[in-house]
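Thread: Newbie trying to understand structure tokens

Hi all, I'm a second-year student working on a class project, and my supervisor (Dr. K.) asked me to get a predicted structure for one chain before our next meeting. I've only ever worked with sequences, so writing a 3D structure as a token string is new to me. If someone could post the tokens and maybe explain what I'm looking at, I'd be very grateful. Here's the chain:
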Amino acid sequence: MSLAATAVAIGLAAVALPSFNTMIGKELSLSALGAIPALIAVAIALGLGAGVYPAFYLSRFLPAKTLKANKSAATEGSGRMRAVLVVVQFAISIALIVCTAVVYGQVIYAKSMDVGFDKSGLISVSGTRAEAARTVAETYADRLSRLPSVVAVTRAEVTPAAEDENNTIVQIPGQVSAQPIVIGRTAID
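---
Reply by user tm_fold:
Sure, no problem. This is what the structure looks like when written as tokens:
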């Protein structure tokens, strides 16, 4: 059953992904092909866990004794436990709604924030970090700067707002801190 639920979940994610991409204005892809063995293992483990525990719990009851007993299934503490479970479920639902609202707010903020530069007319050429491509990149930048419609040309290790990170961990001399300071480093000409 959990394998079927996993297959349905992957299918629904694949169907909903284009709409989600349109909503957030980004291009995400479902690259779960490498994770399928892990998903199958998790689905099997969850299915076994969900089925084995009730089976062991119910196997403790003696059917004849349970059917002969003339009392209801409710015991003294079952009402209190039920109320606690309802409150916990309600609290988890509220927490998930709040988390969804926070994530939605962050998506809206990320889409509307000023990135600090005009993205229109920006040309980014990747693959010029190698030593062999350095002279070609210099020549290309020089020729671009000569064009009358080009305002400015610069070269950098990474493009603005790229996902690539080049960080350096530093410590202040004479100061012992438990937390190292991480500084982003980018070379620009």
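A couple of things are worth pointing out once you decode it. The helical segments are 2-24, 36-59, 63-68, 78-112, 134-145. The CA atoms of residues 30 and 181 lie 35 Å apart. Feel free to ask follow-ups in this thread.
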